[in-house]
Automatic annotation (TrEMBL):
PROSITE patterns: GH18_2 (PS51910). Pfam families: Glyco_hydro_18. The keyword Cell inner membrane does not apply. GO terms for biological process: carbohydrate metabolic process; chitin catabolic process. Residues 1-310 form the GH18 domain. This is GH18 domain-containing protein. InterPro entries: Chitinase_II/V-like_cat, Chitinase_insertion_sf, GH, Glyco_hydro18_cat, Glycosyl_Hydrlase_18. Keywords: Disulfide bond. The keyword Disulfide bond applies. One of its GO terms (molecular function) is chitin binding. It comes from Gryllus longicercus.
Length: 310
């Protein structure tokens, strides 16, 4: 089975959703971490490249029945990109806006939440001018790949270090993104570490690297919520909290996660700030089957409660 066949199968599963719920719009996401940055930098470097990409993207989205496109270039000017990417990104979005709008289609963009990247990789006001939504990937502030101490994945406030959801949101708002266009990303997974000393297991403890991979995802440093809850129960991990940062540990393994109460707080923060809403990554990492004892998809349910939707 080739990639196009797989894509078409997934598309057929999505197409009935807008008919079942008129409030649902399905967008086709292009890009992501594994796609890298170089190819987007090359394409966006010329007017012809930008125009051709925009035309093909709009035709593809329309052909397969999507309501729009979400562009996830990770990241302009970074990872073998060009300094000119910051400006070229806005020009690319302008072309996409024109091509998609002509077909009645929407455009959103995913952006990194690292405060050090804003201004270097992104012209926030320029981006906001051409898109319907700006999806702020407000997670992975700290991971075992970037930190040699245990640290929270996506803290709402600044109880640890310089990075937090609140700080990133404030910076993007101040840089020119209207609140009604800004969407806050919420992770549905835990980040894990291997402790240098099992006796030192608090926040900020020395770490040797990522934690052991989960049985399902098989990715070091990463556990879905259902993987984590099963490990905690089966292996009798200890649970703890420091200054609003929640974590679990056993032996040399350490995981940071957000309980249901914290998930709801993030949604309430979005409402308080008048933001556009929340997005999650990745959807399948929630406890869809309810194996953790909180019912099906408890994280999504708490987000909806915090948003006042249920």
């Amino acid at each position: 089975m080739n990639n196009l066949t797989i894509f078409q199968d997934h598309t057929r599963n999505l197409q009935p959703l807008p008919q079942k719920n008129p409030h649902v719009t399905t967008l086709l996401a292009v890009g992501g971490w594994n796609e890298g940055s170089r190819k987007y930098s090359d394409m966006a470097a010329t007017s012809a490249g930008r125009k051709r990409f925009a035309q093909l993207a709009a035709e593809f989205v329309e052909r397969y029945g999507f309501g729009g496109l979400d562009l996830d270039w990770e990241y302009p000017t970074q990872r073998e990109g060009r300094p000119q990417d910051k400006d070229n990104f806005v020009l690319l979005l302008k072309e996409l806006r024109a091509s998609l709008s002509a077909k009645g289609l929407e455009l959103s963009v995913a952006v990194g939440a690292d405060p050090n990247m804003l201004g270097v990789a992104y012209d926030a006001a320029g981006i906001a001018e051409h898109v319907d939504l700006v999806n702020l990937m407000a997670f992975d502030f700290y991971t075992a790949a970037t930190s040699n101490i245990t640290a929270p994945n996506a803290p709402l406030g600044s109880s640890f270090g310089a990075y937090s959801v609140e700080r990133s949101v404030e910076q993007w708002l101040a840089a020119g993104v209207p609140a009604e266009k800004l969407v806050v990303g919420v992770p549905l997974y835990a980040r894990t570490y291997t402790l240098a000393d099992p006796a030192r297991h608090g926040v900020g403890a020395p770490a040797l690297g990522p934690g052991a991979p989960g049985a399902v995802t098989q990715e070091p440093g990463y556990l879905t919520i259902y993987e984590l809850c099963m490990i905690i129960e089966d292996e009798s991990w200890d649970l703890s909290e420091e200054n609003g940062i929640y974590f679990a540990y056993k032996g040399d393994q350490w995981a940071t996660y957000e309980p249901l109460t914290e998930i709801r707080k993030k949604a309430q923060y979005v409402v308080k700030k008048g933001l556009a809403g929340v997005m999650v990554w990745p959807l399948e990492s929630d406890d869809v089957s309810g194996v953790c004892g909180h019912g099906s998809s408890p994280l999504l349910r708490e987000l909806n409660k915090g948003l006042g939707r249920i």
